[in-house]
Design a protein that fits this description.
By secondary structure, the chain is mainly α. Helices cover 68% and strands 1% of the residues. The protein has a domain of 267 residues.
Length: 393
């Protein structure tokens, strides 16, 4: 009966291709929206997106899987040894299979694991984003870009060398926390990805419209003016990085759910940092432009996959390099176009950068903002009484 059920819900390659495209669209959109929030709203060019995403995946392979092993062993499931590095890798497939059988009849436990993984991913992703940006967060944008673009290389080395994290270069299978669902898991993961994307979108919109979002925008517009009015510029930037990095980590956890497998090479900086950066460039920084940019990028990448056999006959180099070369070429083209256009290709409003949005009299902007955010932050912006209308400026 089970074989018949699985046969009925098995997907053709067309359906699998569409589901895979939709899942990746949602995962990349989560990262791109979070990066857009950090750059567009806070003026922080964070290029280490792969680290929070990897932390989301490692939450599944390092923390949740061990907890699942402990729960299964406590229920009487006889697992193979997994304490040593070699046992952790080579007994992994058998142990995960036993744990999946254990989880099939425990839907509440599975849902509890999913909720725990998502919450822990946000916490660990936020901590990792803060950690890699901390050395340069008080300096200029160039230093932040340099540091956050370099440190992910060290993080990827740790992912390959430290076996207990994700099995080194071989990777590890992870338990199917949707094992209680007898149908095709991909549809459930797709629904979960889209719901998470909607949640991330609403959270970022709520933050941008909150007093905290106004303060972050004030620091972006003129950090000197904000600091002179008593605001801790570094702390505000760190808050923006923590919010964005925590949300990015959800993509790594959901990717692990989709594949039921975690390996370090799935979290490359090329995939999770440079493509989202390109999306921000062509999307103009706005939410709608970012979502359209993700669609354009995913369409390009899927076209390469779909027509790779025909492409191989045309190019003179391995096709694995084509995606990287196209991204680099297109990034240069759109950067040149940006010099002649007022916004991104899919942007309805002018491109928002740290300098483009400055008012001719920025102090008046902060004075008016003080009335809105002073009650939410101790001391407000500290504008003396009688200067609300700019008198004395």
């Amino acid at each position: 009966m089970l074989e018949l059920l699985y046969g009925l819900v098995s997907m053709s390659w067309h359906t699998r291709f569409l589901v895979d495209t939709a899942v990746y669209y949602g995962l990349v959109a989560i990262v791109a929206l979070s990066l857009g929030f950090m750059y567009r709203r806070a003026g922080v060019p964070f290029l280490g997106c792969s680290v929070p995403v990897m932390m989301g995946g490692l939450t599944v392979s390092t923390v949740a899987m061990r907890l699942a092993f402990i729960a299964a062993a406590a229920a009487g499931v006889e697992l193979l040894p997994y304490a040593s590095d070699s046992d952790w890798v080579y007994n992994n497939e058998q142990n995960v299979g036993l744990v999946n059988e254990f989880l099939e009849s425990r839907p509440l436990l599975c849902l509890g694991f999913i909720a725990f993984i998502l919450a822990a991913s946000v916490a660990l992703g936020a901590a990792s984003g803060w950690l890699i940006s901390r050395p340069a967060i008080g300096l200029g944008p160039v230093y932040i870009m340099m540091v956050t673009l370099t440190i992910p290389n060290f993080a990827s080395i740790l992912g390959r060398v430290v076996i207990p994290l994700s099995g080194g270069t071989l990777g590890v299978y992870v338990p199917n926390f949707l094992a209680f669902y007898r149908g095709e898991k991909s549809f459930v993961v797709l629904a979960l990805v889209l719901l998470t994307l909607l949640g991330v979108f609403l959270i970022l919109r709520a933050v941008e419209g909150s007093p905290l979002g106004m303060l972050i925008g004030a620091v972006r517009d003129d950090e000197v003016a904000a600091a002179s009015l008593g605001k801790d510029v570094v702390r505000v930037r760190e808050t923006a990085v923590i919010i964005g990095s925590g949300l990015m980590a959800l993509s790594g956890a959901l990717l692990s759910f989709y594949f039921s497998y975690v390996v370090e090479c799935n979290f490359s900086n090329h995939q999770w940092s440079l493509w989202p950066l390109f999306i921000i460039i062509i999307g103009g920084g706005g939410d709608a432009g970012t979502l359209l940019g993700v669609a354009a990028v995913e369409a390009l990448r899927r076209a390469i996959i779909l027509y790779k056999e025909s492409i191989i006959d045309v190019i003179f180099f391995p096709i694995v390099y084509l995606e990287v070369m196209l991204r680099s070429l297109l990034m240069l083209v759109f950067l040149f176009l940006r010099l002649r256009l007022s916004g991104g290709v899919f942007s309805a409003s002018p491109w928002a950068s740290a300098h483009d949005e400055r008012d001719t009299q920025p102090a008046r902007r902060y004075i008016s903002a003080d009335k809105r955010i002073g009650s939410g932050f101790e001391g407000g912006l500290g504008v003396p009484e009688g200067e609300e209308n700019g008198a004395g400026l």
